[in-house]
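Prompt: For my understanding, could you write out one protein's sequence and backbone structure tokens?
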Amino acid sequence: MVQFGKWLRRQIEQSLPEWQDQFLRYKELKRCVKALSGVCPPLPAEEAEFVAEVDAETEKINSFFLDQEEEFIIRHRELQNDIKRALDPRAAGAVAPAQHEAEVAAIRREIVNFHGVMVLLLNYSSINYIGLAKILKKYDKRTGAMLRLPVMETVLQQPFFKTETVSQLVRECEAMMEAVFPEAPEGQAAAAALAVAEAEQSIFRSTVAALLTMQDVRKGSSTRGSHSLPPLNLPDSDWLRSFEPPFPIPTR
């Protein structure tokens, strides 16, 4: 069984290079837990220091998530305008057919890349949630405390966990794909988009597969409770589900 820390490192390495410093510093928090005296109940100073470290990591994750979400909202609006202009018959007639097709092809690539990055942000949210739950479980096991439940209840209210807006943008982006692949037979527009995705963004497949694995693991839990990981807000998309899930999340 692969340890969670190694699994997490693999997930981070598969993300965008410029995002990798924005993930939970699980390894460093694990060192903090190991450095505790281990007395039960934990020393107030030790617990305060650990909670401060967790709060700082949570704030970092929130800040990054909100920045990305804001950029996505702006880019989504820009893409809507680009599509409207590109599909306007007057715009198509104003330039040579080859030039117009090149412009539409560029929009297609941009939409698929945009969709892929938004899926990565959903994955980012889920990975960090799981990491926080895991490190708090280790803290409770080390100290005999009951810190995990109250902290995770506050995490459920954190901005990075509120993925409804990004999930909605993903669904709307898929509708955009249908608009810019009108010549494809019914049901094949998504397949054409996937071909573009594989050519444009090599990590797209692995990140979507990671999302599906997380959802499957949570769905299969028979002991769901306050400590359980909640279901993902994964967009309902047949072509996302065409990916095969990778390795399951380690339990330790």
